[in-house]
Prior knowledge:
six-stranded parallel sheet, alpha/beta, binds adenosine-5'-diphosphate, binds zinc ion, 23% strand, seven-stranded parallel sheet, 18 helices
Amino acid sequence: MNYLEVSPYGVVGKDFLVLTYASAATLPAGAVVEIPVGQRKFVGVVLRTVPKPQFECKEILRVLTDRPLPPALLALQQWLSQYYLTHPSTVWQTILPAGLNKSRRTQSPATSAARTVLAANKQKGLCCKDRPCSKELTFDQQTAISQILKMKSGTALLHGITGSGKTEVYKALAMQAAARGKSSIILVPEISLTAQLVAEFKKDFSHVIVTHSKQTEAERHLIWLEALNADQPVVVIGPRSALFMPVNNLGFIAIDECHEPSYKQEKAPRYSALRAASVLAEKSGARLVLGSATPLIADYFTAQKLGRPIIKMNQLARPDAVKPKTTVIDMTRSSAGSKNPIFSKPLLEAMEKTLVNNKQILIFHNRRGSAPVTLCENCGWTAFCPRCFVPLTLHVDKHQLKCHICGHHEPPPTSCPVCREANIIHKGLGTKMIESEIRKLFPDATVRRFDGDNPSGEGVHDMYDELKSGKINIIIGTQTIAKGLDLPNLTLVGIPQADAGLMLPDFSSSERTFQLIAQAAGRVGRNKAASQVIIQTYQPKHPAVVCGSTQNYKAFYDFEIKNRQKNHFPPFAHLLKLTNSYKTEKSAINSARKLALLIANDSQLAKIHILGPTPAFYERQRDLWRWQIIVRAAKRADLVKVAGLIPPQHWQSELDPN
Ligand code: ADP
Ligand code: ZN
Ligand code: ZN
C-alpha cells in the first residue's frame, strides 16, 4: 500500500488542509483523484507520498486523469493559498474546473480527426509556413521580440501605444515557444476581445484552445482535458482563469491590456492575474509579457524598481496610419453650447460629417441606463435602493428604476412619495439616454448600444462582424467597447462626459479616467483614414483628461506617481481592506471599531496605519450594513499579520485592493 496526502477540492473543514488516503498504485504529485469524505465523494489532488500513518486510512476511489497536473500549476496553487491567505481547497475551486469526477460525452470523433489532419499538415503544431499569413514585422516589433527573447525567462513590460501592433509580438513569441516544443497562454481582458484575437492566432497555429465564461461545465471539463493531454504545443487564449489551464511545458505567457481591472478576481482568492502569472512563469521557466498602452502606475513603477525590461513601441504598426485630430471641448463655456443637452456643436457637426462620409462613430460613456439619479425638484427626495442605499438608475425602455448592485427594480413614481408633487426629474447621463438622443438626431443611422444591459447574443462578441464591417453606423458603449477593438471604418470617437469617473472615492479614480480616455481615443488613428477624437468635459485642465486625450502616458505617470508618494498610496505602501457585513448598522459600526482598536493596540504592528473605520463604498448591500477599515503598511508582511486578526465571521479581507 501507498499512503498519499490529498488536497481536497471544496472545503471539507476549516482545519483540514490535507487528508491521507491509501492507494495500491503509486501516484505522482499532481494526480487528480476521487476520494471518499464521509458519505460523499470529493475531487482531490495528490500532494505527496507519506509513511504509513498511525490512523486508519480509506482508499482512493479512482484516478480521474491520465496525467498529473503540471508541477508549476501545483506550485502556483500553493503560492496563491499563501500569498492571498486563502484556504487551499478554495484555491482549487478557482484553478480546476467543476465536476472533474463526472463522466462527459467526449468530442465527436469527426472534429478530433479533422484536427489531426490539420496538425499533420502543419508539422508539429507550428506555423503554416506554406501560406503568407503573417505580416512583415515593423522595426518596433522586431526590436521588441529580440529584446524579449534575450531575456531567458521572467517578466517584461511591453509598453506600446494603441495600434503599435502588440498582437503580432505575442504571436511571434508564441511561435518561437512552439518551435521549442513549448505551449503558450494568452490572456485577454474579456470575452469581447477573443473573437478578434482567436481569428488572428488561428491563422498561424493549428492547436488553439479557447476558454471563455459562456462555456458550460462540461465544455470546460473537456477543454481542460484537451490541454492536459495535448502532446504538441498548444496556444491557450482566454480571460484571467485561462492562466490555470493545465498546459505541460509552458514557454510563454502574454497578458494583453494588462491594466484592465478584470485581471483581479473579486472573490477569494482575490488574486491579481499579473502576480500569479509572474509566479507561474518563474516556476515554469517561461517568459511573461505584460502588454498595455497604459500600464498601471504601480506596475510600471515595480518594473522600473526591479530592473525588468520595459520595452517601448511608439510607432503605429501600419505604415499608412494617420494619427487622429484631438479636440477637448470645455463644457463650462457657453461657446460649447448647442441646443442639444448632451452634444456640443463641434461633436454634432463631426457626427453629421462622418455619417455623410459613410464612416463609423463611437460614442463612449461609462455609465449604463438612462439617468443615474431620479429626484423630486420640489422637496429633494431621491430614489434609492431600499436594500443597498445607492441611487436607482432609470431605464426608460423598461420603464423601471433599477439598482445596479442587487438588481432591485420598481416603476418610476409619477409623483413624489414624500411631498406628492409631480415634479419628478431624472438627472445625469447614461448610455440609454445617449442612445435615444442619437436615434432622434439621426433617424436614418443604424445605432447600437453595447453595455452590461445587452441581452445575451447581442454583445460585442456576437455582433463583431457587423461592428467590423461598418454596418453599424453609430456605436454607443461603456468600457466593454473601449478596450482593444480594431474597427477599420471607425473615424470619429466622441466622449460626452470625460470626467464622469473622477468623482469616485478611490485612490485610482484619476488613473482609471486617464486609461478610459486614452483607450477610447486609441480606437482611431489605426489606419490611413483621417480621424477625429472629440472629448467633452467640465474639467478640461485635469491631468487625467489632458494626458488621456493626448495619450501622453509619461506626463500622466509623472503627475500621478508624485500624488501617490505624497499621499502614501500604492506603489509606495501596501493596502489591506477589511470589510464587515451585519444585519444592523449598530453591529457593523461596533464591530469595526472593536477591530480597529484591536489592530491599533497590537504591539507587534507598530508600523501600520489605520484609515477608518468608515462606511464601505457600498454601505448597504442586499439588506446588510457594511463598514470597512483600510490598513496601510510599508511591508506587505505586516498586513498579512493584520489579516490574521480578523474575526472568522462577518469579516472579509482583501490584500492589494484595486
Ligand atoms: P495594439 O494591440 O498594439 O493596439 P494591434 O496588434 O491591434 O495593436 O495592431 C494594430 C493594427 O496594426 C492592426 O490592424 C494590425 O493588423 C496592424 N498591424 C500589426 N502589425 C503590423 C505590421 N507589421 N504591418 C502592418 N500592419 C500591422
Ligand atoms: Zn417631493
Ligand atoms: Zn440594491
